[in-house]
Structures are given as structure tokens and as C-alpha cells.
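Q: My labmate handed me this sequence with no annotations at all. I'd like to see what the chain might look like in three dimensions before we decide whether it's worth expressing. Could you predict it?
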Amino acid sequence: MSLQWNFVAAILYFEIFVVILFMLPFIKSYMWQKVFRSRWLKILTDYAHIYFKFLMVILILLFLDAVREVRKYSNTKVDINLPEAEISMNMKMFRAQRNLYISGFAFLLLFVLNRMSKLISKEASLTASNEASLKQARGASEQAKKLMAEIEELQKEGKRKLSRSNSMADVAMAAVADSEVTKELKATKEEVTNLTNELENAKLDLKTFKKQAEGVSTEYDRLLVEHAKLQKQLETQDGESKKEN
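A: Here is what I predict for the chain of 245 residues:
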């Protein structure tokens, strides 16, 4: 093969190797995402669109040249009485068809690799967002449990204060009305009132927090549905790419 067709064949072999790597099940999408965002590869990806267009133009030109060669040798007539000429023509036709297939498959796999890299990056982003939503939901659940425990403590403390105030009221009514006892009783009643208000506010906060937790759970379910749809789309596109290959 000449230099340009050796170059196209090398590109085709490299594309096949990368496609096989993308299809390996034990290499997860977040691993590829780290590779795509690495420092040494980011230098190349900054100008990836330029490289892609340049390579696409080269492959199109070589593909058109291969088509021209195939049509040229297909329309050429060979003298049957000259077997060497027929062998030479068949060899040229074989090379032209080989170059046509190599350039065509290289051009096709170029688009396949571009699409696969975008889908892998999108899947990695969705997986990361799902994990973040799950962590947020777990944190909200733990916070709700802590708030419930605090509310229970406030309820117990309020009951203790209320029982103390009732006993002190009975003692005050049975004993002589003393000004100091009356003041302490009033202070205790005010404290009980404040604790009751705090308990009601805590209950309102708990209701609000439960609504927020339900919203987070609904958002997480929606993200799981989107993730399942994306996985089905990836499996469908993988099946279509296998059929095309």
C-alpha cells in the first residue's frame, strides 16, 4: 500500500481498538470521564473539533479517490488473450476495492467514536448527579431523625416542667399566700408557656422539613427514571452500531 493508504489503515485499526475499549464492561463511565478530563488529554480535546474536521476531510477525499479508482477499473476492458494483463487488472481492482472499504469503515467509525464518547460523558454526569441526590436524601433523612429526637426531648421536658408547676400550685393554694411563692409560680407558668410555644414551632419546622424530604425523594425517583431511559437508549444505540458493523 502507498503512504496515504497505510495512514488510513492505521486510523482504522486505532478506531477499532478504541471501540473495543469503550465496549469493555469492567471499565465504567466515570473512569472514562476521568480520562477525558485529565490534564494531558484536555490539551487535545480543546482542539478536538479542528482535528475531527481535518480528519473527516482527509477520509472523504480518500474515499472519493477510492470510488474513482473502482469505477475506473470496472469500466476498463482487458484483452482475454493477454492473461498477464487480466491478472494485473484484477490486482488493481482488488487494491481499489480494498482502499474503498478501508476508507469507508474509517470514516464511519470516526462518527461512531464521536457519538460514543459523548454518550459516555453524559452517562457519567447523570450517574454523578444521581449519587449526589441519593446522598442529599440520606442527609435529609438523618436530619429529620435528629429533629424528631429533639422534639421528643422538648415534649418530655415540657411535661416535667408542667408537673412541677402543678405541684407548686397545689402547695401555694394549701399554704399561706406568699409573695415570693406567687412570683415563682408566675415565672414557672411563663416558662411552661414558652416551652409550649417552642414545641409548636418545632412541630411546624418538622412538617416543613418532611415536605422538603418528600420533594427530594420525588426528584430522586425522577432521576432514576431518566437514568433507566438513558441506559435503554445506550443499549439500543449499541445494538444499532453492532448491526451496522
